[in-house]
Design brief:
Bound molecules: NADP nicotinamide-adenine-dinucleotide phosphate
Distance between the termini: 56 Å
Number of strands: 9
Number of helices: 9
Helix content: 40-55%
Strand content: 5-15%
Structural class: alpha/beta
Strand order of the largest sheet: 3-2-1-4-6-7-9
Largest sheet: 7 strands, parallel
Radius of gyration: 19 Å
Length: about 270
C-alpha cells in the first residue's frame, strides 16, 4: 500500500460531495465516494464509487469494510450526505422529521461509529462533518433541517474533545446557501396548512433566490481540501461571505434586531 492518504466521502454523486471527490482525487488522495444508486459517471474516474445508504447499519458497515480492505486504512471521513426537508414546523409530521434526522444526523453517527475503532487503532484520522450556516442560525420553513444541523454542531463539538487523545481530529464546514442540485430536490412536507401558505411561499422563494445567487459547490470543496491538508485543523470553517456576515451580525447585533433581519431576509 502506498503512502497515499485514503478519504471516504458520503454522498459523492452530486454537488459538494462530487466536487470534493474530484478535487481531492486531483490532489493525490485515494478517494472513495458513495451513492445510494449504482453506476454513476464517477465510476469511470479515479474516484471509486461505492453503494451506501447512511440510514442503514448494514450498508454503513459494508462500505467501511470495503474501504478498509481496498485502501488498507482510512485517513479522512467526510460526512456530506444529506437532504433538505421544507415546510412550516406545524405542517411537518414527526415521521418526516425523524426521516430527516435519520439521514442528516444519525447517518453521521452511524458513519462515525463505524470508522472510530479503525482510526483509534491507526492512532490517526480526521472526521469532517459538512454542516451548514443553518446549524448556527435557523432558517424559517427549513426548521427541521436546521435542527438536524444544530444537532450536528453539538455532536461534532463534543466528538472533537473525546477523540483528541487518539490523535483524531473532528471539524465541520458551515456554508451559506449554495447553488447545487439540492435546491431541485428539496422535499416539501406532505401536509399543507393554508394559513401558512403566503409565508411559506415567500420564504421558499427567498431561499431559492439566495441559492441561485450563491456560490457553487467548489467553494466547499476548496475548503475541505484545506481542512484535510491542515496539520492543526480547526473545529469550524465558515464558508462564503454570507456565513461570515451572518455569524458576525448574530454576535454583535441586539437579538431583536438580528431576528428582524432574519425575517426580512426570508420576506416573512
Ligand atoms: N446546498 C446548500 O445550499 C448547502 C449549504 C450548506 C450545507 N449544505 C450541505 O452540504 C451537503 C451536500 O449538499 P449538496 O448541496 O451537495 O446536495 P446534493 O447535490 O443534493 O447532494 C446530496 C448527496 O447526499 C447523498 N445522499 C442523500 N441521502 C442519502 C442517504 N440516505 N445515504 C447516502 N447518501 C445520501 C446523495 O447521493 P445519492 O442520492 O446518489 O444517494 C447526494 O450525493 C448536505 O449535507 C447539505 O446539508 C448544503
Amino acid at each position: 500500500m502506498s503512502a497515499q492518504r485514503v478519504v471516504l466521502i458520503t454522498g459523492a454523486s452530486s454537488g459538494v460531495g462530487q466536487a470534493t471527490a474530484q478535487l481531492l482525487s486531483r490532489h493525490g488522495f485515494k478517494v472513495f465516494g458513495t451513492s445510494r444508486h449504482s453506476a454513476t459517471a464517477e465510476s469511470a474516474s479515479a474516484v471509486e464509487m461505492l453503494p451506501l445508504d447512511v440510514r442503514m447499519d448494514d450498508s454503513v458497515r459494508a462500505c467501511v469494510e470495503y474501504v478498509l480492505n481496498r485502501g488498507g486504512r482510512l485517513d479522512v471521513l467526510i460526512n456530506n450526505a444529506g437532504y433538505e426537508l421544507a415546510g412550516a414546523l406545524e405542517e411537518l409530521s414527526s415521521e418526516e422529521a425523524r426521516a430527516q434526522f435519520e439521514t442528516n444526523f444519525f447517518g453521521v453517527v452511524r458513519m462515525v461509529d463505524a470508522v472510530l475503532p479503525l482510526m483509534r487503532r491507526q492512532k490517526s484520522g480526521h472526521i469532517v462533518n459538512v454542516s451548514s450556516l443553518s446549524g448556527l442560525s435557523a432558517i424559517p420553513f427549513l426548521g427541521i433541517y436546521s435542527a438536524s444541523r444544530f444537532a450536528l454542531e453539538g455532536y461534532t463539538e463534543a466528538l472533537r474533545h473525546e477523540v483528541k487523545p487518539f490523535n483524531i481530529h473532528a471539524s465541520m464546514t458551515e456554508a451559506g446557501f449554495l447553488k447545487t442540485p439540492m435546491m431541485h430536490h428539496r422535499q416539501l412536507g406532505a401536509n399543507r396548512i393554508a394559513e401558512y401558505e403566503p409565508w411559506r411561499q415567500r420564504a421558499l422563494d427567498a431561499i431559492r433566490a439566495n441559492e441561485e445567487k450563491g456560490p457553487g459547490p467548489e467553494v466547499v470543496a476548496e475548503t475541505l481540501l484545506e481542512i484535510v491538508s491542515s496539520k492543526h485543523p480547526r473545529l469550524r470553517y465558515l464558508i462564503g461571505g454570507q456565513a461570515k456576515t451572518v455569524t458576525r451580525l448574530r454576535r454583535f447585533l441586539p437579538a431583536g434586531m438580528y431576528e428582524y433581519g432574519v425575517r426580512r431576509t426570508f420576506s416573512i
